[in-house]
Amino acid sequence: MLFLLLLPGCSHQGAKAEFFKDSALSLVWPPAPEQPRVKLLKVFTGTEDFGETKSAFKTVFQAITGENPESVGFMTPAGIVSDGDRYIYIADPSARLVHKIDIIDNEVTYLTHSGVEPLASPVGVALDSSGNCYVTDSVKAKVYKYSQKGEYLGILGNGTVEFQRPAGIAIGRNDYKFVADVLLNKIQIFDDKDRFLRDFPHEDHAKDLNKPVNIAIDSAGYVYVTDAFNFAVKVFDQSGKLVRSIGTAGDGPGTFSRPKGIALDSEAHIYIIDANFDNYQIFDQQGRLLLYVGITGKKPGQFFMPNGIFIDSADRIYISDSYNQRIQIFQYLKEAQRK
């Protein structure tokens, strides 16, 4: 009896370990003889990576097109999020849907509608503590909420807030939601009941934002904003006061040309995607460049206009490699893992 009770958990962990393992990949950064700090775990191109389970994918565009294809591949994957255990969500504006990948059951399903209305341009995704998924739609100018089962639950703010072009979204402590609006040049905060609370940052600094596109929140509640047209990442405390600015416009390491997604690992290193540089750069809390990963190309570890980034609790780094139409997953190596 005990064996039977333990078996599902063992199977679950085995399936997860198998998904993140690819013995054919051995890339690390920086290369030898330096101590490696990042390694490539997996390059995921879509449902075909699940092999014989393709029959599970017959769900997708029937309501939109009247057809019933077996699967929808990545077109231009953008925002990405994972619970670190089972599900990965990838917003795909060109496909007008969100891919929901179940790495345990080897299934892909799709978020395609908000009620009866089809999604138009989903670009950002985030998960709350209950596993509900929030999706920003930049064309519909709304943020939609779905249950872990994929059921449509409603609109963030219950229609009391008008967005213009919501993009990045992050969920911090107490399930507070932070939504970056590119055209409004500000962040809007919602509470755990999805009610609008206030604009962000502090009014003394709000005027300085110029096309905020993405957000990350660290364990202490500090808010990191990709300020795209200022070619910088702005760091704010919980009250909305500017703490520091990282980066400037440029064409070399430590500068930005087209900054996109942002995320933090468990040691508070700051990871910033640059779509023009085809890499992600890693900074410390003082804004000093530690490492950059990637060059232009189609091989594993290379990128073509990457967009989204997310880091889970196990320090796995998920990258939306948009114009290579794939996801690449890396691992940040802590001190003990480098040996």
Summarize the structure.
Helices cover 8% and strands 39% of the residues.
Helices and strands in order:
Layout: H1 2-19, E1 28-29, E2 38-44, H2 62-65, E3 80-82, E4 87-92, E5 97-102, E6 107-111, E7 113-114, E8 117-118, E9 122-127, E10 133-137, E11 142-146, E12 152-155, E13 166-171, E14 177-181, E15 186-190, E16 196-200, H3 203-206, E17 212-217, E18 223-227, E19 232-236, E20 242-246, E21 259-264, E22 270-274, E23 279-283, E24 289-293, E25 309-311, E26 316-321, E27 326-332
Antiparallel strand pairs: 1-2, 2-27, 3-4, 4-5, 5-6, 7-8, 9-10, 10-11, 11-12, 13-14, 14-15, 15-16, 17-18, 18-19, 19-20, 21-22, 22-23, 23-24, 25-26, 26-27
Keywords for this entry:
single chain; 339 residues; mainly beta; globular; disordered N terminus
The major pleated sheet works out as:
5 strands, antiparallel
- Helix/sheet category: mainly beta
Number of strands: 27
Radius of gyration over C-alpha positions, nearest whole angstrom: 19 Å
Low-confidence segments, ≥5 residues, pLDDT <50? 1-5, 52-69
Mean pLDDT: 90
Please count the helical segments: 3
- H/E element sequence: HEEHEEEEEEEEEEEEEEHEEEEEEEEEEE
Strand percentage lies at 35-45%
- The end-to-end distance, rounded to whole angstroms, is 40 Å
Silhouette: globular
Specify the helix fraction band: under 10%
In order across it, which strands form the biggest sheet? 1-2-27-26-25
